[in-house]
Amino acid sequence: MNTTTAAVLVPLLPALAAAVILLTGRRAPGYVQPLAVVPTLASAALAVFVAVRQSGREPLLAGTSLTPTGNPTLPIELAVRLDGFAVLVAVLVAVVAGCVQLYSTGYLRGDPRYASYAALVSLFTSAMLLVVYTDDLVVLLVGWEVMGICSYFLVGHYWETATARSASLKAFLVTKLGDVPFVIGILALASDAGSFRISDIVARLSSSLSGFELSHPTLVALLLLAGVAGKSAQLPLHTWLPDAMAGPTPVSALIHAATMVAAGVYFVARLLPVFAASAAALVVLAALAALTMVGSALAALAQDDVKRVLAYSTIGQLGFMAGALAVADREAAVFHLLTHGAFKALLFLAAGVLIQTAGTGSLAAMSRMRELRRRAPDAFWAMTTGLLALAAVPPFAGFFSKEAVIGAAEHAALDNEHGVSSSLAAPAAAGWIVLVAGLATALLTAAYATRLWLLAFHDPVDARVESVPPGERASSAMTGVLWALMVPSLLLGLAYGKLPDWLDGGSLAPTLTTSVLATGAAVLGGTAVYATWRRAYESAQAEDPAPALLGPLARHAEAGFHLDAVYAAAVVRPVNAAAGLVRHLDRAVIDTCVRGAAGAPGLLGALVRRAGTGNVQTYLSTLVAGALVLGVAAVLVAVGD
Amino acid sequence: MTERELLSTSGQEIVFVLVGLVVLGAAVLCVTTRHLVHAALWLVVALGGLAVEYLLLTAEFVAWVQVLIYLGSVVVLLLFGLMLTRAPIGPSPDADSGNRPVALAVALASAACLVTLVVDAFRTTWIDLETPHGRSEALGDSLFRAWVLPFEALSVLLLAALIGAIALSRARRARAGVAANGGGR
Amino acid sequence: MHLVYPAVLSSLLFCVGVYGVLARRNAILVLMSVELMLAAVSLNLVAFDVWLRDEIHSGQVFTLFLIALAAAEIGVGLAIVLLVYRERGTSAVDRLRALADREGNEPDGNEPDRDGPAPGPGGAASRETTTT
């Protein structure tokens, strides 16, 4: 099979599966499971095949003209671009999606809407793969928006509950809020650069010979950043992500690990020369990333729900990727994207098992349960591995990718002239911002990872009183997926030496200084949490170490720094007030007009019907008098003429 | 036909006006009297006076037809109708409806308008009555030459009216039968 | 003779007829007033025919037709009046208000509810007549 054909099949298979499931799922529910799992796994296999065939070679470009745009120099093409970034991210997406589909067969067993769920997950996967492979901005936009719609439906899977409904609506509206400037940005970029093809734009921008420059690089970059911030849950559009936990856990894993949020980072990585053309945009990106990292880490430390902790940690890790991009090192960003995809999928799927076992997602409730570790051993090991990777403890995967990011930031901050990629220079300010925020976040990440682990599992002297509620054990499909995902979480980091051959060719190896600094910060954070927890545990108080550590900040951090309240005050309440005004106008003004329009003729009719007395003589009198008046009038008019 | 001044009089005119006053008076009495049977009799007077007027206008055939048909049959029919509806012989206080003031106003207004119009239009027009124009011979001649088709149509119409009157009477009997079944009448 | 005299007479006669039609209560009196109006028209037709010296005597022939028509009209009209009298027990035109627009109830054409309970011919006669 030709590499290009295989690459086209990768997004096509899940899309076809989605269509078939949507068409037949209601009549033949028995075929839904194989239809959901097999095409996704097949496309994962094909993605691996494409990656192996493509490894480290020149980017493969293929395209066919899709539709005329009215401007012959600016066609929309159904094009693929198979470079290292694309094939690796595609492997991640397809593998995680396959795991999620497998896991869902167990997690959503007996769910009446499993068919539509499976179809939407397939469609979601297909859209993300389209975004990954495509070389055309408009086709990318199509996949981007299809993902938005699918996320709306999937987050609202349990639409019977009000939280799920509002969460799905929020996810949709907030991402669309970012998408509006995103579309404008894409059109501005394409008309500026004269092409919708990403490779053309990048080639024009990076070639030093052509001397091509965008006329408004900062504007375009900032417009695109808005869309990226919406999709990748960066400040200030991140608020949808914690709420999206109302969806089923596999969906959270899919959204957080591989698709949707990764799309934003991947998009910036693809178009990094556009962003690098504007130093201001990079600094803005760095500032956003830093704020996101630190803020979300603090919020994660204060959350009570396991999935919300993980959601905030996702935001933070996305901040890391955005930080890597802000210092113009897309290799580090994509490296972190890959490792994060692996260990975050693992964490979410393990959290699903844990929640199913414990019957609750609340950490406070879990911290009172005995022997949770023994009841869900697979979840325990998966969680431990994932949290170690998240906290960037060597030699887990997270360590290497995070080191790559911090190393890149350090490069950008200290010796800017010897940046990682010579053609893409990042301002030193961005480097410093990312470096400092990254170290702080490393500390906080270790802290909340430790807290999560301690609260959920650690009970050295069997002091907990409540027992785990009885429930069904996780199915073998679910636990099998967990063990399978543990492998990349453990080992993917060791690919740091091999990976640059596939990407731009820079170095991703950890440097000694940053390793010591970051690991030291992580150990510090972990130790502090452990000490606080230990004191609380021994004094038999509430075990949560977060309030003691955060002090007065805890309340604000738990509420996500009140950003939702700000949005409510700034957007929701004015819109509600405007709606109320419109409703009042409709009721009081327009309805009155309508009722008057109906009432006036009614009144007139009531008056007129009084003339219908039934007395023939009255009628005749009126008739004769009227005829007389008419006759006189006619005569007078005739005389007057 | 020649034209004269408005108030140049002749003997025929004097008779015409006097008879006209009688006709008008009889008509007014006919529509105002409280005796229902008197009203029919005043109608006879008015229509008879009109026949005299026709004679004065030299329309002798029309005058005799008026006497024969109107006085001979129509008024008799009306009297029968009064009797069949058990009209009171003496004065009946409710002979006029409540619409009377309106009727008076409308009638006076239309009279004023019509008289003004007619006088204004024909004040100097003169009818030449030297040669009679309504002789039976000439009238019959034109009736059965020029107007024979309408005449026949009229006969059909009279037949239709006859049948209609019979049908209405029969319908009454049928309904009365229904009512008798339902109401014991 | 002046044309004005018969024309004015016919106009006044017509208006008297109009008054009768509008003011009389008994249906037969109304029919009489109609006769007066028709007679007024006849007079007009004859007068104008004589004035114009019409070759084919249109006006007088029309008068003859009119007289025949009046006879037919009286025949049918009296039949209707008698029928109504049999059905409703009255020949007063201002009491025949079955077609009036009433609130609420459907006019089924056979209930003189505004005029009190429907009496038979005998009851109506005893109410309408003083001596019989």
UniProtKB/TrEMBL annotation, chain A:
Residues in the signal sequence: none
EC number: 1.6.5.-
GO molecular function: NADH dehydrogenase (ubiquinone) activity; NADH dehydrogenase activity
Source superkingdom: Bacteria
Keyword vocabulary terms for this entry: Membrane, Oxidoreductase, Transmembrane, Transmembrane helix
Membrane-crossing segments per the record: 6-24, 31-52, 84-103, 115-133, 139-159, 171-191, 211-230, 251-269, 275-302, 309-327, 347-367, 379-400, 429-454, 475-496, 508-531, 619-639
All residue ranges annotated as the NADH:quinone oxidoreductase/Mrp antiporter transmembrane domain in the record: 135-409
Principal cellular location given in the protein's record: membrane
A single BP term in Gene Ontology: electron transport coupled proton transport
Location within or outside the cell: Endomembrane system; Membrane
Entry GO CC: endomembrane system; membrane
Keyword NADP: no
Its membrane topology: Multi-pass membrane protein
Ranges where the NADH-Ubiquinone oxidoreductase (complex I) chain 5 N-terminal domain occurs: 73-117
Keyword Membrane part of the UniProt annotation: yes
Name this polypeptide is given: NADH-quinone oxidoreductase subunit L
From TrEMBL, chain B:
Name listed for the protein in its UniProt record: NADH-quinone oxidoreductase subunit J
Topology in the lipid bilayer: Multi-pass membrane protein
InterPro entries, per database record: NADH_UbQ/plastoQ_OxRdtase_su6, Nuo/plastoQ_OxRdtase_6_NuoJ
Protein purpose: NDH-1 shuttles electrons from NADH, via FMN and iron-sulfur (Fe-S) centers, to quinones in the respiratory chain. Couples the redox reaction to proton translocation (for every two electrons transferred, four hydrogen ions are translocated across the cytoplasmic membrane), and thus conserves the redox energy in a proton gradient.
Principal subcellular localization: membrane
Record's subcellular location: Cell membrane
EC number: 7.1.1.-
Protein family membership: Belongs to the complex I subunit 6 family.
Transmembrane region(s): 14-32, 39-57, 63-82, 102-126, 146-168
One GO location term (cellular component): plasma membrane
UniProt cross-references to Pfam families, sorted A to Z: Oxidored_q3
Entry keywords, A to Z: Cell membrane, Membrane, NAD, Quinone, Transmembrane, Transmembrane helix
Organism: Streptomyces sedi
Automatic annotation (TrEMBL), chain C:
Biased composition, class Basic and acidic residues, residue ranges: 98-116
Subcellular localization(s) per the UniProt record: Cell membrane; Membrane
GO molecular function, one term: quinone binding
Keyword field contains Lipid biosynthesis: no
Transmembrane segments: 6-22, 29-52, 64-85
Keywords for this protein: Cell membrane, Membrane, NAD, Oxidoreductase, Quinone, Translocase, Transmembrane, Transmembrane helix, Transport
InterPro entries, per database record: NADH_UbQ_OxRdtase_chain4L/K (IPR001133), NUOK/Mnh_C1-like (IPR039428)
One GO CC annotation: NADH dehydrogenase complex
Pfam family for this entry, one: Oxidored_q2
Disordered: region residues: 98-132
Cited HAMAP family: NDH1_NuoK (MF_01456)
Entry's family note: Belongs to the complex I subunit 4L family.
Protein known as: NADH-quinone oxidoreductase subunit K
Source organism: Streptomyces sedi
